[in-house]
Amino acid sequence: MADDTVLTARELYRFYRAGEEETLALRGVSLRVGRGETLAVVGPSGSGKSTLLACLAGLDEPSGGEVRVNGVRISHRPETERARLRARHIGVLLQTRNLLPHMSVRDNIRLAQRAAAGKPAVSAQELLGQVDLAERAHALPRQLSGGELARAGLAVALANSPEVLLADEPTGELDGETEQVILTLLRDRAAQGCAVLIVTHSAEAVRVADRVIRLADGRTDSAPTTSDRQEARDATG
Ligand code: ADP
């Protein structure tokens, strides 16, 4: 199992200071996601989920602890190095925020590929085919439907065939049918060996995950599955 671990977070702490006020957003969070595994992270609003995702993606720096991808430390490095490592190894899906509005879907994918500064393993057009958007390559984000936007965002996150895919509420704004499409695409990615982590409130996303961890007040309570799933179902009705 240890050899299969792709993403590791060890004892992550994150403090925010605003004047006199200090918030402990993360208080020693550790987790691992293996090759081909889908992990769901659940927890109430304010429990630290977004902070955790940002630290895992190298978009934010933990105050303590470390993040590794395939054994390579991504935390505690200059921003430019973190950006380079992220571009090469980590796909980040941030709801609809993955797309630049003035660029076509295909150019958005190509931009993400340029950030990795190597020859992409998959062409933009091929990626668009994988998310069933081949016909919409030249469309601007505002010309897409909600479901198409979600798939386009996913294509951008997958632009560099990442070993890790981090998704922040990937189905939060979608109808049931589109949610299924996105979850199936995420599961397909895991089946191809990607380590997938989904921050979610969706009972359906929790259902398809292999494992669930719960955040509460910046700490994990990784007791898991059946009761978490029931609770998520109750919470989302
Ligand atoms: P979640 O994603 O689970 O809603 P967050 O990670 O957004 O939780 O927030 C965790 C805690 O950290 C909250 O108490 C929040 O108010 C605080 N927090 C998040 N970002 C900042 C920030 N930039 N400055 C100060 N406090 C923050």
Short overview:
This protein has 237 residues and is of the alpha/beta class. It is 35% helix and 27% strand. The chain has one domain: Rossmann fold, CATH 3.40.50.300.
Structure commentary:
This protein is of the alpha/beta class and about 240 residues long. The chain has a single domain (about 35-65, about 80-235), classed as P-loop containing nucleotide triphosphate hydrolases (Rossmann fold, 3-Layer(aba) Sandwich), CATH 3.40.50. Helix content is about 35%, strand content about 25%. It contains eight helices and ten strands. The protein has helices spanning about 50-55, 80-90, 105-115, 125-130, 145-155, 175-190, 205-210, 225-235; strands spanning about 5-20, 20-35, 40, 65-70, 70-75, 90-95, 165-170, 195-200, 210-215, 220. The strands form two sheets. A six-stranded mixed β-sheet has the order 6-7-8-3-9-10, with helices on both faces. A four-stranded antiparallel β-sheet has the order 2-1-4-5, with helices on one face. Helix 3 (about 105-115) packs across helix 4 and helix 3 packs parallel to helix 5 (about 145-155). The longest helix is centred in the last third of the chain and has 16 residues, at about 175-190. It is globular. The chain starts with a strand and ends with a helix. About 40% of the residues are buried. The mean pLDDT is about 90.
